[in-house]
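Q: My labmate handed me this sequence with no annotations at all. I'd like to see what the chain might look like in three dimensions before we decide whether it's worth expressing. Could you predict it?
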Amino acid sequence: MRTACLIIAILTLWATAIAETLTPYIIVLGIAQDGGSPQAGTKAHPGWDDPASKHLATSLALVDPATGQRWLFDATPDFREQLHLLDVEAPAEGRPGLAGIFLTHAHMGHYTGLVHLGYEAMGADAVPVYAMPRMTSYLSSNGPWDQLVRYENIALEPLADGIPVRLNDRLEVTPFVVPHRQEYSEVVGFRIEGPSRTVLYIPDIDSWTEWDVAGTHIEDLLAGVDAAYLDGTFFADGELPGRDMSGIPHPFIRTSMDRFENLPDAEKAKVRFIHLNHTNPALRTGSDATAEIRRRGFRVAAERERLGL
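A: Here is what I predict for the chain of 309 residues:
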C-alpha cells in the first residue's frame, strides 16, 4: 500500500511538473517609455555604463511552450535586443520564429521596431502583424512600412474593438480602444486570456477619468483579470522641470494609486506599472518612489518577469 501511494505521489508530481512546463506565459521584455532609459540626449545617466540601470522600451511576449508559438505585444525601437532576449528565454525554430505581433498604436515606441523585419535586415517572411483599421491603413500607405507589406515581410491582420482573436485552442487576445493621442492610428489595450489566467495590457492612456466618461471603468476590468500591466509613464506632477505636464497626458502613478487605494489588497496586487519614462524615479529599485509603490500594495513590472497563464 505504501509503495502504491508513493508511486501515485511521484506520478502526480511528474504530471504537475509537465503541466507547468507546458503552461503558456507572459514574459516582460521592456518596461520603459518609448525612448527607453536612458533616452537619446541624456548625458548623465548610469545606464550608459551600468547594464542594470538600462531599461528597454515597453513590450510583452506571449509564449505557448506546448505549440512553440511566440507573439509580441508592440514592436519597439529595441526590437533587436528584445527578440534576442526572447530567443534566450523561450527559444523557437524559424526566422524570426514569431507567430505574430500585436500593435497598440502608432507612437514611436510601439511599432517602429517593425523595420527590423524588412529587406535591409531580417528579410522576414509574412510575419502576421495585428492592427486596428487606421493602423493598418497607415502601415499600408506610408513608407517605409508599405515596403514591408509589398515585400511580404509582414502580413497585416485586422483587429476590431472588442472582438477576440483566437490564437489557438488555449489563447485568446481582445483589443479595446483607449483614450490617447491618435495622430496616426487608434490606441488600444489588450486583454490576453490563457487557460487559467488573464492579463490586461494598457501601456498608454490619457486618464482613467476620461475613460469613466466613456462608460468604461478600469476597476471593472481589473476585477476580471489576474494581472494588469498599466500605464506608469510618470510618477508624479513636476517630474519634468520647466514643462507643463498637462500637455503630456498620462495618469501619474500616484494618481492611479490614490484611485485604487480602497480596493481590496488582492486587487491592488494585480497592478504592475509599466511604460516608465526615463525621468520616473520608480525605475530605480531602491528609490523612495519604488518603496512607496510597494508599501501601498502595488508593484513595478520587471524585465524578464514571467506570469503563467
